[in-house]
Amino acid sequence: MGADMDVPWTKLAEQVPQLVVFVFMVTMFLRHMSKSSAAIESSERRTAELIKELTEDAKDFQRDMTLKTTEAFAKNTGALERNSQALGVSTHVLDKYASVITK
Predict the structure, then answer these.
(1) What does the pLDDT profile of the chain (103 residues) look like in tens digits?
(2) Three-state SS letters, the chain
(3) How many whole angstroms separate alpha carbon 13 and alpha carbon 19?
(4) Number of domains, the chain
(5) Cα separations (Å) of 15 from 9, 53, 65?
(6) Does 78 map to a domain?
(7) Domain membership flag for residue 79
(8) 94: Cβ–Cβ under 8 A, 6 or more apart, which residues?
(9) Distance of CA 37 to the CA centre of its chain
(10) How far, in Å, CA of 91 to CA of 99, rounded?
(11) Is 72 domain-assigned?
(12) How far apart, in whole angstroms, are the C-alpha atoms of residue 27 and residue 38?
């Protein structure tokens, strides 16, 4: 009976190196998956941060452009008012001295 019991243990002992390699490969695979998952999470986090930064930069740019456009519009409006006044004065002077100029 002792000889019969040695056969399964012998066969099992022959498979130990394969089992060790299998366990090693599974461990390495799980470690790789863990690192990949962490890398993906890190990449997603960085992408979200970049999108937030770009959004803030775009809002700042839009705000600056709005202010600059408002300032330019105000300056142009002032220049148009001064030109209109000057044109009004010129028209008044020309009307006043039209008879002298046409003679």
Answers:
(1) 455 556 677 777 778 888 888 899 999 998 888 888 888 889 999 999 999 999 999 999 999 999 999 999 999 999 999 999 999 988 888 888 877 766 6
(2) CHHHHHHHHHHHHHHHHHHHHHHHHHHHHHHHHHHHHHHHHHHHHHHHHHHHHHHHHHHHHHHHHHHHHHHHHHHHHHHHHHHHHHHHHHHHHHHHCHHHHHC
(3) 10
(4) 1
(5) 10, 57, 74
(6) yes
(7) yes
(8) 101
(9) 22
(10) 13
(11) yes
(12) 17
- Tell me the C-alpha distance between 11 and 95, whole Å: 123
Cα dihedral: 13, 14, 19, 21 (round 10): 130
For residue 42, what are its two tokens?
């890190």
d(CA 46, CA 38): 12
Termini Cα distance of the chain: 147
Tokens for 35, please give them.
């690192």
Name the residue range of residue 78's domain.
30-102
14 part of a folded domain: no
